[in-house]
Design a protein that fits this description.
InterPro entries: ARM-like (IPR011989), ARM-type_fold (IPR016024), Armadillo (IPR000225), KIF11-like (IPR047149), Kinesin_motor_CS (IPR019821), Kinesin_motor_dom (IPR001752), Kinesin_motor_dom_sf (IPR036961), P-loop_NTPase (IPR027417). One of its GO terms (biological process) is microtubule-based movement. Pfam families: Arm, Kinesin. The protein has 905 residues and is of the alpha+beta class. Among the domains are: 332 residues, Kinesin, CATH 3.40.850; 67 residues. The chain has 31 helices and 19 strands. Strand 14 and strand 15 form a beta hairpin. Helix 12 packs antiparallel against helix 13. The chain is elongated. The two termini are 23 Å apart.
């Protein structure tokens, strides 16, 4: 019987949905009150933490640890229509005693076995009653900062999905545990300070598939060896703000879950569905001290205390039902599904048996299901299990097996731990805001002081100009007046002289010599009078000169005032010099931090090479290895200290320094900051991307090229940054750098950046047009394994995007990779000794071969035989399956194999 999605018979991988965005709305305002109608847990949870939070923002310590047994409740499903007819003459094989929390399983009409559970739920128990007994204590623990797990186990058709995942769209009373748990969580959190994100995926045939994005399958499980935490980072995480968006998410996920029609259930789940809810809550009222290096608490730490954040996780597991093949009637593919389900459930049972018996070895790695539930049984989570059974005596064996599973689970003890950490990001934002305010206030004060100085200087200049103008006008008026008086006196004398001359001529004959002498005497007297008048005029001129001297002394006093103002300006210049000295100190601190980072990397190199885990399709940041190892926390602390003391804008300004050493250390710091996803958006907004591209264009230093290319590779992991890099001519600069570089590390950084850009299907045509593919192919001249691995990853990303474009119908012609001549190198390295190079090349070959338009060129280049080898010998199951499917579906490949007389189908 063929497996299908719940909304129709659509084959796996054929349906692609857009990944949902975060849906924001106001949350419920009602407070979440604890109401637990069931019995108290075996071991309570302390509400107040007595532990301490580490100084480092990246480290998280358990606040408290308490023991808590796995709580198990049993729920009986009522008889269905088929059982009422088939078992009408037989009594139920189960007898419930809910008041005693007991269950009796009949062996025959006169003998039975009795079992005790934490709670016994009859067939009449409401969904609300089930939630309050089974799930509500776990939800309360999650809101208090503990991890929690709610799981349903039982035979196919006994009501596991009904108990956990019922949406209650027609009747709200039918809502299951998932919906009710999210209602309580949203009612308790504060949207401004808290956050809730949800992932929904299924474990099908030992492969993890994202239910929110079905194309995203074969997701890896990541385990933290230090803390023991298990996570699925490859699954889609959606921020939840209201209940409506959560219901839409559950509805979308259920449509993609695998289901099939069997004799036991018309819509039997063929996979284990797992809902993972991550809750982050800010803890108020907690005092914490951040000690400086000498052990004393700094003034800044007292003024700005970072808030404490509690991170917890709720895991709701809807297991696929166990079944017997002869009863379910499974066959063909459904039979294989049933085998996979029974194997994973068997592995889970073995782990619980080992934990219940305190065995030294717990086989958690026998199945991906047990790896995912590693924290739920014997870990740090508070776990509540509901086992579902049916009343039919025909299935007594399966019912007994389910009951024994629950009995063994009740013996498992977990150590509950609360997790807290400082929210240094919000503290950094507060410090940045305070710094910006102080800088703005200082600039306003400095601008006001400069304006006041300019105003005083302008007023003094105006006064001096007016005084000089008044002095000049008064002097000119006096000069003109004395000149006029002098001219008038001369004129009068000339007139008198003329008159006297006339009289003298008329009376010459009559006058005697005596009269002539008397006239001369008179004239002499007049001349003496004129001389006296002239001396008086000169004395008046001297007085005016004295007044001018007084005005000049006043001008000197004004000049002294100007000198005072200039002295004030010099004081301001001294303050400015002090600020520049402080900036120089910050620059020296930046250089010191960069030297410390270099020393850390040299220590890591002497201690051994750190290799990062990664998948074929996930780009690895070139600088991420600097954050691993024993010195990783110290370097992160140095970066946080650098942010607090210097600021991103000042760090970026050092990229333009004329000092080559300062420029090198500055670009190293920017590259290390770019390795953190939280810093990438800040770097781009502050102009860091343009500065890095400018360095590639203008600098001739090999070290700057290497580190700048590494920083660009980190930024190129973000889709928005990829478009910015392309729009600013980044691929051309990277291609030129690749052509000039000889150092393998520089080529690895450049190849990593281009490989990240190759993963964006929107930019493929532009990337190829600006020489990106040819640049990748040109870098194989280095022959260094790390460089070749990045080249292979870029080609694989490009081929995958092309394959997606073929499928969507947006591309019809031959592959651009084949047109640019990469196929011979791909075929040559398809069986490379280095596994990273080989896996990427194998994936690229499979994507190219999926489309018939490329088949002829691939046959001609010898790629067909590599595909045959991959389908038989590849270590990766998904690549081997893809190669086999490609060979069997291509007419050209089948024709060539028949021509060569090779039976492959």
């Amino acid at each position: 019987m063929a497996t299908a999605y719940r909304n129709g018979t659509v084959p796996k991988g054929a349906l692609k949905v857009d990944r949902p965005l975060s849906m924001n709305s106001t949350s419920k305002s009602s407070s979440f009150k604890s109401k637990n109608s069931g019995p108290a847990p075996a071991s309570g949870i302390r509400r107040k933490s007595t532990g301490s939070v580490a100084n480092s923002a990246a480290s998280t310590k358990d606040a408290t640890s308490v023991s808590g047994r796995v709580r198990v409740a049993v729920r009986l499903r009522p008889r269905n229509a088929e059982e009422m007819v088939a078992d009408a003459d037989f009594a139920d094989c189960v007898e419930l005693q809910p008041e005693l929390k007991r269950l009796k399983l009949r062996r025959n009409n006169w003998d039975s076995d009795t079992y005790e559970f934490d709670e016994v739920l009859t067939e009449f128990s409401s969904q609300k009653r089930v939630y309050e007994v089974v799930a509500k204590p776990v939800v309360e623990s999650v809101l208090d900062g503990y991890n929690g797990t709610i799981m349903a186990y039982g035979q196919t058709g006994t009501g596991k999905t009904y108990t956990l995942g019922r949406l209650g769209e027609e009747d709200t009373a039918d809502r299951g545990i998932m919906v009710r748990a999210m209602e309580d969580i949203l009612a308790e959190i504060t949207p401004a300070n808290d956050s809730v994100s949800v992932s929904f995926f299924q474990l099908y045939m030992e492969s993890i598939q994202d239910l929110l994005d079905p194309v995203n399958d074969n997701i890896s499980i990541v385990e933290d060896h230090k803390t023991g935490d298990v996570s699925v980072p490859g699954a889609t995480a959606v921020d939840i703000r209201d209940q409506k968006s959560f219901l839409e998410l559950l509805r979308l996920g259920e449509t993609h879950r695998f289901a099939a029609n069997t004799k036991l259930n018309t819509e039997s789940s063929r996979s284990h569905a797992i809902l993972m809810v991550h809750v982050e809550r800010s803890v108020k009222g907690r005092d914490s001290a951040i000690s400086s290096e000498n052990g004393s608490t700094s003034h800044t730490a007292k003024a700005f205390k970072p808030p404490v954040v509690r991170k917890s996780k709720l895991v709701v597991v809807d297991l696929a039902g166990s079944e017997r093949i002869d009863k379910s009637g499974s066959e063909a593919h459904t039979l294989e599904e049933a085998k996979s389900i029974n194997l994973s459930l068997s592995a889970l049972g073995k782990c619980i048996n080992a934990l219940a018996e305190n065995s030294a070895h717990v086989p958690v790695r026998d199945s991906k299901l047990t790896r995912l539930l590693r924290d739920s049984f014997g870990g740090t989570a508070r776990t509540s299990l509901v086992i579902t059974i049916g009343p039919s005596p025909r299935h007594r064996g399966e019912t007994a097996s389910t009951i024994m599973f629950g009995q063994r689970a009740m013996k498992v003890e977990n150590m509950l731990k609360i997790k807290e950490e400082f929210d240094y990001k919000s503290l950094s934002r507060r410090l940045e805001i305070q710094l910006d305010k102080q800088i703005a206030e200082h600039e306003r004060q400095q601008k006001g002081f400069q304006d006041e100085i300019e105003r005083i200087a302008q007023e003094a200049q105006i006064r001096i100009t007016e005084a000089e103008k008044g002095y000049a006008e008064a002097l000119e008026r006096e000069r003109l007046q004395y000149q006029k008086d002098y001219v008038d006196a001369i004129s009068k004398l000339e007139e008198q002289w003329a008159e006297n001359k006339q009289k003298h001529e008329n009376e010459k004959a009559k006058s005697s010599m005596l009269s002539a002498s008397m006239e001369v005497v008179e004239l002499k007297k007049k001349f003496e009078n004129e001389t006296l008048l002239r001396k008086a005029a000169e004395e008046e001129i001297d007085n005016l000169k004295n007044q001018v001297a007084q005005w000049k002394r006043s001008e000197a006093a004004g000049n002294s005032e100007i000198l005072k103002l200039r002295k004030m300006l010099e004081d301001e210049a001294c303050q400015k010099a002090k600020l520049e000295e402080e900036i120089a100190v910050l620059q020296s601190q930046l250089l010191q931090l960069s030297f410390e980072a270099d020393e850390t990397r040299r220590n890591l190199d002497r201690g051994g090479t750190v290799k990062l885990p990664g998948t074929l399709d996930s780009p690895i940041p070139p600088f991420m290895h600097q954050h691993l190892g024993d010195s990783g926390d110290g370097e992160k602390a140095s970066m946080a200290k650098l942010f607090e003391q210097v600021g991103l804008s000042k760090i970026l300004s050092l990229l333009e320094s004329e000092d080559a050493d300062v420029q090198i250390h500055a670009v190293k710091v920017v590259a290390n900051l770019a390795a953190e996803e939280a810093n990438q958006e800040k770097i781009v907004k502050a102009g860091g991307l343009n500065s890095l591209l400018t360095l590639l264009r203008s600098s001739n230093d090999e070290t700057i090229h290497r580190v700048a290319a590494g920083a660009i590779a980190n930024l190129a992991m973000n889709e928005t940054n990829q478009e910015l890099i392309m729009s600013h001519g980044g691929i051309s600069l990277l291609s030129v750098t690749a052509a000039k570089a000889e150092d393998p590390q520089t080529l690895r950084m450049v190849a990593g950046a281009i490989a990240n850009l190759c993963g964006n299907e929107k930019l493929q045509a532009k990337l190829r047009g600006e020489g990106g593919v040819k640049a990748l192919l040109g870098m194989v001249r280095c022959r260094h394994p790390d460089v070749l691995a990045q080249v292979a990853r870029g080609i694989a990303n490009f081929a995958k995007c092309e394959s997606r474009a073929y499928t969507q119908g947006s591309k019809t012609g031959k592959s651009l990779l084949i047109e640019d001549g990469t196929l011979p190198w791909i075929v040559q390295n398809a069986n490379n000794e280095a596994s990273p190079i080989r896996r990427h090349i194998e994936l690229a070959l499979c994507h190219l071969a999926q489309h018939e338009v490329n088949a002829k060129d691939m046959i001609k280049a010898g790629a067909l035989w590599e595909l045959v080898r991959i389908s038989r010998d590849c270590s990766r199951d998904d690549i081997r399956t893809l190669a086999y499917r490609t060979l069997t579906s291509s007419p050209s490949f089948q024709a060539e194999l028949k021509r060569q007389r090779i039976d492959y189908g």
